[in-house]
Amino acid sequence: xxxxxxxxxxxxxxxxxxxxxxxxxTDVEFDYILSHFSFKKFKKHQFLIQEGQFVLNDYFLxxxxxxxxYTDEIGKIHILLFAIQDWWIxxxxxxxYHKNAKVNxxxxxxxxxxxxxxxxxxxxxxxxxxVEHFFRKKTNRRNVALQNRILSLLSSSAKxxxxxxxxDYPSLVQKLPKHIVAxxxxxxxxxxxxxxxxxx
Amino acid sequence: xxxxxxxxxxxxxxxxxxxxxxxxxTDVEFDYILSHFSFKKFKKHQFLIQEGQFVLNDYFLxxxxxxxxYTDEIGKIHILLFAIQDWWIxxxxxxxYHKNAKVNxxxxxxxxxxxxxxxxxxxxxxxxxxVEHFFRKKTNRRNVALQNRILSLLSSSAKxxxxxxxxDYPSLVQKLPKHIVAxxxxxxxxxxxxxxxxxx
Lengths: 200, 200
Known about the structure:
2 copies of one chain form a homodimer.
Chain A: E1 2-3, H1 9-20, H2 27-34, E2 38-42, E3 47-49, E4 57-63, E5 66-71, E6 77-83, E7 88-89, H3 92-97, E8 104-107, E9 111-117, H4 118-127, H5 129-154, H6 158-168, H7 178-185, H8 189-196
Antiparallel strand pairs in A: 1-2, 2-9, 3-8, 4-7, 4-9, 5-6, 5-8
Domain Cyclic nucleotide-binding (chains A, B): 40-127
Organism (chains A, B): Sphingobacterium zeae
InterPro entries (chains A, B): cNMP-bd_dom, cNMP-bd_dom_sf, RmlC-like_jellyroll
C-alpha cells in the first residue's frame, strides 16, 4: 500500500498550497515538513481507520473521498463526516490520546493520502512556531465543522439538515450515492428525493 | 457588570494553573498574558452569548456553570454543551470568523469569567510560541469533546447517552436540575429517573 513519496511530488503541491494559505514557508522548509509525512493509496471500500484499532495517523486527502462513521449498539451506521481533497481526517481522540478508535473511516472511492503521525506533528509544532500556528488554525476550523454537525443533528427539519449539507460539502452533493447522503442526513431515500427536487 | 481584575487575583490562579499544565511560563509572563483578559460576573439566567449577536469573547469560567443551546425552527431547545470551572466556552464559529452567534450561552448559576477577545488571543499566540501551543492543545481537547457529543447524539440508547454524560461531566450529575439533564440527553424526566436508579 505504501508508495515512494517521490512519485507524488506533484500531489504534495496540494499540501504546500494549504500551508501557504496560513503561513509563510520557504521551499526548503516545506520539503523538510513534507519529509515527516508518508504517502498511502487506498482502494474504494478500504479502511483508513477501523473501530477498536490503534490510530497512528492523521490523514490529509490528496484525492478521493472518505466517510467517518459510527456503529451504534444495535448495529446501525451513523455517518459523522466526509472528507475530500485537502481535508484532514482521523479519529482525533484516538490519535491525540493514544486510544483505540471509536469510529471507522473508509473510502467511498480510490483515495490517496499523506499520513502524519502524532509524534511527527508534535515535533514539527515544536520546531516551527508557524507550523503550530497552522495546526491551531486548522483545528479551529474542525471545531466549527463539528459544532455545525451537532447543530445539523439537532435540527428537526430534514430540509434544514439538507441545506447545511449542501453548504458544508458543495462538491459532494452530486458526487455521493444517494443512500449515503440519506444516511448522513438521517432521512429515507424518498425524503431525500423530495429535498433534491427544486422549489422545496 | 465589568469589575476590576485586581479584585480577583486569587481567581486568576485557576487560569495560571491551567496554562502551567501545558506550558512553562514565568509569573511575569503570566501577568502579561492575564492583562489581555477582562473579568466579568454574570447572575443566574443572564446570557454570555445570545443568538444573532456579535461574539467578541471566548470565556474561561472561574466559577459557576453555563449551558450552550440551540433553538430549532419550531422553537425547541437543544443543549449542546455545558461548561464549569476552568472550561472555555463561546460560539467558536462566530468568535473566530466574525459571524453572528448561532447558539445561546446562559448561566445555570451565578458565574464569573475571564474574557479573551479573538484579537488578543491572536496577539498572544503571535508573541508567545508557548501560548500558541497551549491554545492548539486546548482546541484539540474541544475537538474531542465535540466528537464525543456527536457520538452521544447518534447513540440510539438513552442509557449509553447517560453514561457518556456522567463520563464527560462527573461533577454535574448531581448538581444540575433534572429537566436540564433530560433535555441534554434528549429523554423524558421519567426515563432519566430510571437511568439514575442503580442497576440500570
